[in-house]
Specification:
Elements (H helix, E strand, L loop, with lengths): L3 H5 L15 H13 L2 H8 L3 H15 L4 E4 L2 E4 L1 H27 L4 E7 L1 H11 L3 H4 L3 E7 L4 H4 L5 E6 L6 E15 L19 E4 L5 H7 L13 E2 L2 H9 L4 E5 L4 H6 L3 E19 L6 H19 L10
Parallel strand pairs: 3-4, 3-5, 7-8, 7-9
Antiparallel strand pairs: 1-2, 5-10, 6-9, 6-10
Pfam family, one: HTH_1
InterPro entries: LysR-type_TF_proteobact-type (IPR058163), LysR_HTH_N (IPR000847), LysR_subst-bd (IPR005119), WH-like_DNA-bd_sf (IPR036388), WH_DNA-bd_sf (IPR036390)
Keywords: DNA-binding, Transcription, Transcription regulation
């Protein structure tokens, strides 16, 4: 919480008046001073006098009844409370700046549509899917966050999320986009031709994915075989990193086939073994059921559905739609 330290010092938040809440100017003075640990440098950045910056910070400390800096001969040092408040202040000022930029960029008629999606799915699938959307709907401002936290939907932070899972999320409407078929791929410099048997995997490094720690183990189990050390190998956060690790010759990656269509076509990646593993879950477009009839959500849902249908017709990926 922004005023957690103030609360600990005994300030009753319910009794705080408009004068008690810090001004934007005092927050900017504190943030700059904390960033450079110097009132003088902060004053230069903010085009203020050193005395004015110092007074703003002192007033902020007084209103919060919390010491934010230790003043010493060699400059400033943040107190533990100041260090925590510094991070919170940066978030507050960043949000104000973003809100102002959004308004200046899109005008008073703009409506923000907040989307959450996995980084790799965003780069490889959503961005191509959104081609032309902003031109056709200039009054919608897209705020795309690369993450997969469905809890943000519950808190109203996100309007639409593209998630991998079972399709069941509390109070959410989910539309299945496509299942996931994973294949083992690597650089053509790593192998001359596809393996003759699963035993050949024993001689190569298996690239791991943080979000699917047992993917390789399941891959071999589904083919009714066992291999030594299926969980060992360099582990990456995203499929994007795994794909590039495989392209660089670091080993064999087990990744969704639809994410690497271009690399397979160009020959940057080759299939090490022809088996395709269909995972238990699928990719979904999901949103709070309470927002079903809102214009921004229904517009995006229709746009994505049209893109999916077009993809089916062009036979780019095997996709089905179901609510």
């Amino acid at each position: 919480m922004t005023f957690i330290n103030a609360i600990r010092k005994g300030i009753d938040m319910q009794k705080m008046t408009a004068r008690t809440y810090p001004s934007t100017t005092s927050l900017r003075c504190f943030e700059a001073s904390a960033r450079f640990l110097s009132f003088t440098k902060a004053a230069q950045i903010l085009h203020m006098t050193q005395s004015a910056v110092s007074k703003q910070v002192a007033h902020l400390e007084c209103s919060l009844k919390t010491q934010l800096f230790e003043r010493c001969l060699h400059g400033l040092q943040l107190t533990p409370s100041g260090a925590l408040f510094f991070k919170e202040t940066q978030q507050i000022l960043g949000q104000i700046e973003q809100s102002v930029l959004n308004l200046l960029s899109h005008g008073s008629e703009a409506e923000t549509l907040k989307i959450s999606i996995h980084p790799t799915l965003c780069a490889r699938w959503l961005i191509p899917a959104l081609k032309g959307f902003c031109k056709q709907y200039p009054n919608f401002h897209l705020d795309i966050q690369e993450q997969t936290c469905s809890s943000d939907l519950d808190n109203g932070v996100i309007d639409i999320a593209f998630l991998y899972g079972s399709g069941v999320w509390r109070d959410m409407t989910s539309i299945e986009l496509f299942p996931e078929n994973c294949i083992a791929v690597c650089s053509p410099e790593l192998i001359d031709q596809p393996f003759n048997s699963l035993d050949d995997f024993q001689n190569y490094v298996l690239i791991q994915t943080q979000s699917r720690p047992r993917a390789w183990e399941e891959y071999f189990q589904m083919q009714e075989t066992m291999t030594e050390h299926p969980l060992f190998g360099p582990r990456f956060d995203t499929f994007y990193a795994c794909i590039h690790a495989a392209m660089s010759g670091c080993g064999i990656a087990l990744v969704p086939k639809f994410l690497i269509a271009k690399e397979l076509q160009s020959g940057e990646l080759v299939v090490a073994w022809p088996y395709e593993m269909q995972t238990q879950h699928s990719y979904y477009m999901t949103y709070p059921t309470s927002m079903t009839n809102t214009n921004k959500v229904s517009t995006m849902v229709e746009w994505i559905q049209n893109f999916v249908q077009k993809s089916i017709q062009e036979q780019k990926v095997p996709i089905k739609l179901s609510a």
